[in-house]
DNA sequence: CCCTGTGTCCGAAACGTTTCCAAAGCAATC
DNA sequence: GATTGCTTTGGAAACGTTTCGGACACAGGG
């Protein structure tokens, strides 16, 4: 920038003003500066820029789990889009899955002076974020120990929708397979219970299956065991897209096919031998809303109290959820 | 850091030395400094750190297409992992698909003083990267106008493998559906041609289908048209996972099912009515190798000339590719 | 002619590190 | 006791930007 100033025969301040907006600079001077910028191929150093007091870098941090999971990938993509429109870059923290790793990743990102954090939180306390003086938006689930914005899906409503749908087909024994993601899972279970209560049915607790892991493999194993019981369920509610995959995998070896409803849509769901009925929400919108909110917080545009935004879920009937009880 | 120095009663230089490695500091002094750091909750400001001359920030930039595509998501995940191990963060450029947008995104990232760039390049000239003095590794395909490292897949070999497999089943009319991603697609086509030549067959150019877009929709439409011809192909080679999806979608309405081989594996491929045969490579490894190479370049550890690394492809037989000609 | 206000421009200060040089302390050697 | 060399420490300079107070020029009003 100093070089540009010299070349154009002006002061640093003038160059800086031209580079940003350029108010209060005579057009003639400004064009001279612009010429010098082009000749020298000058590019503003964002790092130095972010160093100034009070300034934050123009990047957002995104902390989430496995990008290979389409759910997270969709959120990331949406956030990237929205942030990009505002000239913000997105820094992806490396996430090691365990809460301690998450904490370290977040600290790391704060050290990079990001303008805001978008987090799909792990369990564990997040109160260390409170004092950081940096806007935070949680996505998909709330965090403990801090009262921040949160954008999520109507898990309870979705769980209820899925279960009601199965019960409405006349299923009396509907199992739910729960991935260990405490919050969302808990809500979906609550919806499941509520649907039962609404239908005047008692929940058979042996049909509430807690998986040790959220993987397709764990779900497959659990489903196999479930279907080998003397009195297997005739309806299955898979609380996650990966769980649904595992369930379907296990059901390939089963004679009496139970009805299946999944939570969250997934690619190819409509192309399987029996197309899969799911309860889904607009995941991209989830990411977009979160990103926009975070940008507004970072810019200081939005000064409302912590928001709690919930997106609705819809049932997509494709076949697997409409099988009658056997 | 100044506060820490005051608190510990030492100079700035000493604190800095403790914070990094801490060589040449008496243990007693070092522990006093560490105590002060803990008390004040001090955290190094990465931005200021990257400002020093010659220093680059400890982040890698990653520029790639749609994260929703599992291929890209897998690369991103792998890069994230590897970079994280070295304490590097990953900045995701927002990619608008068009070459101009890509260029802008890259310039943006360079302005952020990233230590290196990992790019899945769009078409168009990338020579503007040559003068930036920043290591670049291209992934999946080379770029024009610059001689940099590149990590990719054996597209030609894969294309050949897929085609040979189909020809070996006795298929005489094998079509190839090409997504418009010039380089990879061209290589796969070359493999297709080579397989034909190897089998002593002439390629029917009407069976080489260039799709207007790389989407499942475009592939679905093209497949439908293809199969409605008077003399439809009995074997199909889908050059991409999305293309394969479209192909399979179209084939649901077709009586005489042709054999299908896809390029790149995808989730649920083994669960479709006819499990899908694909030619696949280790995409995660692709990302890992690229990230490692970039880190070594950035650290100055690796000073060899531009590398050109090619990963092999393997055929995964699942059924769809083993259908006999009809 | 002086004063004031306005529009433009200049350049020093500040941001929080790292690095480098110099200084200080200490032990060993002469 | 002086010299030398090594380890440890202190602090100034530098990085590239933004911001801010002030300077300068010029126009208009008194």
Describe the fold and architecture.
Two copies of one chain form a homodimer. The first copy, chain A, has 326 residues and is of the alpha/beta class. The first copy, chain A, has eleven helices and twelve strands. Chain A has helices at 2-8, 12-19, 27-40, 46-51, 70-85, 99-111, 155-168, 182-198, 216-227, 241-251, 283-299, and strands at residues 59-63, 89-92, 116-119, 136-139, 149-153, 174-178, 208-210, 235-238, 259-263, 277-280, 308-311, 314-316. In chain A, the strands form two sheets. In chain A, strands 2-1-3-4-5-11 form a six-stranded parallel beta sheet, sandwiched between helices. In chain A, helix 1 (2-8) crosses helix 3. The longest helix of chain A is centred in the middle third of the chain and has 17 residues, at 182-198. The radius of gyration of chain A is 25 Å and the shape is elongated. The termini of chain A are far apart. The mean pLDDT of chain A is 93. Strand 2 (89-92) of chain A pairs antiparallel with strand 2 (89-92) of chain B. Chain B binds a DNA duplex (30 and 30 nucleotides) through helix 2 and helix 4.
């Amino acid at each position: 920038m100093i070089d540009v100033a010299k070349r154009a025969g002006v002061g640093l301040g003038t160059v800086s003003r031209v580079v940003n907006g350029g108010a209060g600079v005579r057009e003639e001077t400004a064009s001279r500066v612009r010429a010098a910028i082009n000749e020298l191929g000058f590019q503003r150093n964002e790092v130095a820029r972010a160093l100034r007091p009070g300034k934050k870098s123009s990047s957002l941090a995104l902390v989430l789990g496995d990008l290979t999971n389409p759910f997270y990938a969709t959120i990331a993509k949406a956030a990237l889009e929205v942030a990009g429109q505002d000239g913000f870059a997105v820094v992806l923290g490396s996430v090691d899955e365990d809460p301690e790793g998450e904490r370290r990743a977040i600290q790391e990102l704060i050290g990079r002076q990001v303008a805001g954090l978008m987090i799909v939180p792990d369990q564990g306390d997040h109160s260390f974020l409170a004092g950081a003086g940096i806007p935070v938006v949680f996505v998909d689930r709330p965090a403990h120990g801090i009262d921040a914005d949160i954008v999520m899906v109507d898990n309870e409503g979705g769980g209820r929708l899925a279960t009601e749908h199965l019960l409405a087909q006349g299923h009396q024994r509907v199992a739910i397979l729960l991935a260990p993601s405490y919050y969302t899972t808990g809500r979906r279970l609550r919806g499941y219970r509520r649907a039962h209560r609404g239908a005047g049915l008692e929940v058979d607790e042996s049909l509430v299956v807690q998986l040790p892991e959220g993987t397709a493999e764990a779900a497959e194993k659990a489903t196999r065991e479930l279907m080998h019981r003397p009195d297997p369920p005739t309806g299955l509610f898979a609380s996650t897209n990966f769980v649904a995959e595992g369930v379907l995998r296990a059901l390939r070896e089963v004679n009496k096919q139970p009805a299946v409803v999944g939570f969250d849509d997934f690619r190819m769901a409509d192309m399987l031998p029996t197309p899969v009925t799911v309860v889904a929400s607009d995941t991209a919108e989830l990411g977009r809303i979160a990103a926009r909110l975070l940008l507004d917080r970072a810019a200081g545009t939005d000064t409302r109290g912590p928001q709690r935004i919930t997106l609705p879920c819809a049932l997509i009937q494709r076949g697997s959820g409409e099988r009658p009880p056997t």
